[in-house]
Amino acid sequence: MRSTLSLKDRFSRWLPRLVLSPSLVAIIVGVYLFIAWTGWISLSSSKMVPKYDFVGLEQYIRLWSTPRWETAVANLFVFTVLFLAITIAIGLLIAILLDQQIRAEGFLRAVYLYPMALSFIVTGTAWKWILNPDLGVEKVVNDLGWTGFVFDWITRPEYAIYCVVIAAVWQSTGFAMAIFLAGLRGIDTSIIKAAQIEGASLPRIYLNIIVPMLRPAFLSVIVLLSYISIKSFDLVLALTGGGPGNSTEMPSTFMFSATFRRNQMGVGAASAMMMLMTVAAIIIPYLYSELKEARNEH
Amino acid sequence: MKLITLLAASISLLPVAAMAESKGTVEGIHHWVSESEVNALKVITDKLASKGYTWQDSAVGGLSGANALQALRTRLAAGNPPTTMQFLGYEGLDWAKEGVLRSLNDLYAKNGWDKALAPQLLVFVKSDDTFISLPINMHRQNWVWANKAVFDKAGIAEPKSWDELIAAGDKLKAAGVVPLAIGDEPWQILEVFEAIVTDVNGTEFYKKAVIDLDEAALSSDQMVDAFDKLRKVRGLVDDGFTGRDWAVATGMVASGKAGMQIMGDWAKGEFLAKGMKPGEDFLCFPTPAATANFKFIIDAFGVFNNDDPAVIAAQDAWAESIMDPEVQKNFNKIKGSIPARSDVSVEDFDACAKRSFADREAAVASGNMVGGLTEGFAAPPQFSGVFSDVVGKFFVTDMSSKDAVQALVDGINNAR
Amino acid sequence: MSTEARSARRAHQFGRLFIYGSLIALAIFYLMPLWVMIVTSLKSLDEIYSGSFIGLPQAITFEAWEKAWGQACIGTACDGLRPYFVNSLLMVIPAVALSTAIGAINGYILTKWRFPGANFVFGLMLFGCFLPFQAVILPMAQLLGSLRLSGTIPGLVLVHTVYGISFTTLFFRNYFITIPDELTRAAQIDGAGFFRIFFSVMLPAALPIIVVSCIWQFTQIWNDFLFGVSFTAGQSSPITVALNNIVNVTMGRKQYNVDMAAAMIAAIPTLVVYIVAGRYFVRGLTAGAVKG
């Protein structure tokens, strides 16, 4: 059989792979080669500029005995869990509410989506004022007469990370909403009607029937939100600058300051590798199961 | 790579440095982006223009210059350094060690600039035997700025010790004024802390603990005591200090909402901009020390190695513009600092600058002039970062002084 | 009217009230920062520094907007945001077009021209989504330097295209997988080749996902600061870098009103994209992106 393939056929067999190869090369260089480079630097004594020697795991030991890094890791977990949970909950709620044949849906949708469009370099300042007890919400509520109201999380190291969560949720809910809304629009409305005829209440229908049907939307939202959460950088810098007292430090801000502010490139590279390993530990099993399923389908 | 040819074909390449009709271009990365800073910079670039060279601005603001440093690092990695770069603290020395900076020995020898610079300052301008940067100004960090009307009303005079300052703060608090205006950014807090360390324990202790990072000094009782004092200062601060910019804090002092602020002399411009006069409307005095000391910060420019004689000529013109006495004078009148050159007269400067100038002379003579820790003139960034971590955390939590000292010692050792 | 019907109607009215009430309350929460920004941008600087941060302006002035657009200084160059706005457009249009085009063809290959290891290749690409970009700046700078693209807008376009491929490939692959293989097979039997099928069968069906991909890429690239500040300088900087230089003042006085106006100017293109294309966005997502 093989010998009967003409040159043209052989070319057309290889064409897709050929067209794909530049992308693959770009990814291999831009992602994997650079990860390897970072890995190498994390094993070197690099300080201000890259140095290609070998010091073993010294930088990792240094990293893990830095209290700020421990704070950053703890914060990433707290932040990711809360950010994902709240964004998904509110995003889903808004999507369901918007799906009830609402007037001015387009306008409301734009209202929920616009935060994605704004750069945090400046919205951070607006949020800073809103969260500041002497300028923002607390003051407004106090002025309205409820003098006992206290909302000073941003001044308290143990609560400041929740302020970062609030601002992050504000920025990303619109995106989650759009994906859920899309998922809802893809569901056959006759299912709802049928359930209603059987006497099920609307909240129950959503909880028991519709939400489970949104599984693919949930997966997309989780992937995109985790991406946003791992990369949250501008957000933290603009809102708290990592403060008060480094209580809102995140791995990404830690890596940046180690590499570019403190002349600890080796430590910065080690922290980048830790981040990558964490991501890999979560994403690779997910990818594996997703792609395996896809294979079974076809 | 298919991608790149595609790209190159789709958009015409934009040249990095558009050459204008001039002898050449000086491209500089700096982090001066506020209005007064830019106006000051224009004094230098105007001088450069009068020599026939064009200034090409590559400002990168933010994070006390960290963004600019990052830009420089990537430019060097790409083999495309700018003509000149603004340096703070050890940055210049670090780059000199990497061998990327041009030696300025010929220019220094020809013009005798080093004779006009204080010896403590030369530490940051000279790497071993090589001159590597050109200082334009000197800020003094250990200043207290006070609202005169508020001080008079509460019957407070210039405090002579930190205990007096804290007592004065309590008085202000009783009078319903915020005693100390400050933000919660670690660098603002560190400015207060390093002033306490130096003022209470003397410059010798500061040199040992902060500059030499001597473990015995770092873990000494004097350090614990300094943290105790900082804890008392914490009591003088209002709750709204979160995320407060230093200039907003200065505004509080100017409006009488707060009594005083501890900040470098760039704060002066805020008062002057409101038409307030030193000595009449606001007071400037050094942080109270048993022996007077002077904490300095300089901004300096370094130039990068280049073989092209045209670029070298442009660099020479740039260097001569910065070190020009007239330029130094006019630059600093706008910037709020004093000239880096000690031989430039400050006759027509304001009262605070004159005091700064006189204090510098005295501090140079008595050996009490030291680099400021906060802006990176006492310890390299990996160590000063530890100070700001610990001090920043101490200030906003109820960490004990002993724990703070321990965290400091551990952190410094870890970063060594 | 029976009591049952009446109570059902009342319950329905109550439900509507609840829905609208919640939507409006949430909308107020989402608009709060925008309100702060607009109000601040219309105030004079003196008013802000006298302690008025959130309240209404005493006197409305558009000075800050004019200044942000045409006069604000970035270093010694006082041209406002205008030139950088153009830079960003020059960067974002080719980068979005290229990354979307590449993503489309990758998605097509990975679903309709599957080869051994195609899933592995897709996995490799997808992992790129989660790369912390701070880690690749220095090696990327070296690469750009050796390609002589350092400090240029084309260099920036290249970087954004490379790191955009991961996402666009994900979008298109998940979309194309929902298109039945029979369609392409039929076209193949009719004698259509690789490219012909792509252009005449796949692309016409892909409009919704093209919108999604463009919106996502546009937002990401337009708002990017890290790459912009690393790989461009001075006059070739994108708008976020210019915005940062206006806003991020450490030792000088912050011009809050100009900052806010500048931020809104910088956000206009993305806002327009969201508002104009918002409905297609949801439609595009509906059409397949979430069925992955």
TrEMBL record, chain B:
Protein name: Probable sugar-binding periplasmic protein
Coiled coil spans: none
Family matches, as Pfam families: SBP_bac_1
UniProt KW keywords: Periplasm, Plasmid, Signal, Sugar transport, Transport
Compartments, as annotated in UniProt: Periplasm
Gene3D superfamilies tied to this protein: Periplasmic binding protein-like II
Organism, as annotated: Shinella sumterensis
A single cellular component GO annotation: periplasmic space
Recorded superkingdom: Bacteria
InterPro entries, A to Z: Bact_solute-bd_prot1 (IPR050490), SBP (IPR006059)
Function: Part of a binding-protein-dependent transport system for a sugar.
Family in the record: Belongs to the bacterial solute-binding protein 1 family.
Main location group: periplasm
TrEMBL record, chain C:
Membrane-spanning segments: 17-38, 89-109, 121-141, 153-172, 193-218, 260-282
Pfam families: BPD_transp_1 (PF00528)
Membrane topology term: Multi-pass membrane protein
Annotated protein name in UniProt: Carbohydrate ABC transporter permease
Keyword Transmembrane applies: yes
Main location: membrane
GO BP, one annotated term: transmembrane transport
Keyword Transmembrane: yes
Keywords linked to the UniProt accession: Membrane, Plasmid, Transmembrane, Transmembrane helix, Transport
Domain of life: Bacteria
Cross-referenced InterPro entries: MetI-like (IPR000515), MetI-like_sf (IPR035906)
Family assignment from sequence similarity: Belongs to the binding-protein-dependent transport system permease family.
Organism encoding this protein: Shinella sumterensis
GO cellular component terms listed in the entry, alphabetical order: plasma membrane
Record's subcellular location: Cell membrane
